[in-house]
Amino acid sequence: MQKFPIRARYPELVLKRGLLVNSEITEWVRRCIEDLDIEPKSVDIKLLNEQHQPLLTWHLVGAYPTKWSLGDLNASNSAVSIESLQLYYQRFTMDKS
After folding, report:
1. Cα 93 to Cα 66: distance, rounded to the nearest angstrom
2. Residue 35's pLDDT is what?
3. Which end of the chain is more exposed for a tag (fewer CB within 10 A), N or C?
4. What's the CATH code of the domain at 86?
5. Is the model's pLDDT at 4 over the cut of 90?
6. Residue 71: burial class (beta carbons within 10 Å; 0-12, 13-18, 19+)
7. In this structure, is residue 43 part of a structural domain?
8. Kind and range of the H or E element at 43?
9. Band (26; pLDDT cuts 50, 70, 90)
C-alpha cells in the first residue's frame, strides 16, 4: 500500500490572558464573532524570557477567532479575570529569536 502526503492539520489554538479593556484584539474578536465580519489576519505570538525579550515567535497565517470566553466574575473575590481566545489558522511558521 502506498501513502501520499496530505495537507497538515492543526488543532485550534487557545490563548489565555488577563482581561484587557479597549484592546484592538477584543474589537477584532467582537467583529468576527458578534457581527460575523470574519477578517483573517496574520498573528504573531512571542514567548518572552524574564527580561521580556523574545525567545521564540510563532507566525500564524489566516487566523480568526472561533471562540471567546471570560472567566467567572465574582465581586467578593479580588482575582484577575482571565479571557480565553480560541483561534483557527491555516498554517504557522516558527522563528528562534
Report:
1. 21
2. 93
3. N
4. 2.30.110.20
5. no
6. middle
7. yes
8. strand 41-48
9. confident
